[in-house]
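Most newcomers find our protein records easier to grasp once they have seen one. Read left to right, the backbone structure tokens trace the chain's path through space. Once this layout is familiar, the rest of the handout is easier to follow. The record below serves as our worked example for the rest of this section:


***
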Amino acid sequence: MPTDISDLILRQAISDTYDDAIAYFKLKAEAASSSHEKLLATLQAKEFVTGKFMLDILIDADGETFAGPEAANTVIQSLLNILDVLDRKQFPLTCWRALDVWMLSQTAPCICEDGGKSEPPPAVIH
């Protein structure tokens, strides 16, 4: 099993990041002190489960190419959402891995409408 993210194909690296976010929110739900906090953490975990299932649609069969610029933006924004919600003090390694995958996704090519490949458009950071 590769230990360096750059050794993984893009889809696997992103999938692993989603798995990390899902595990984070499951732990957060278990540790929640109120039913409202537990519900929010459970919903966030389910949101990232849905996002993980969409990767097959958003990333080409080779695992290294986004299905289009919109797909790249969707995945890149989702990775930013993961980075936004993670507790960086409690889970610094998870945050570092998510940031590394986010940077890796910035340089992944996209399939254009004409069938060729191009670089993804720059992500909008909110």
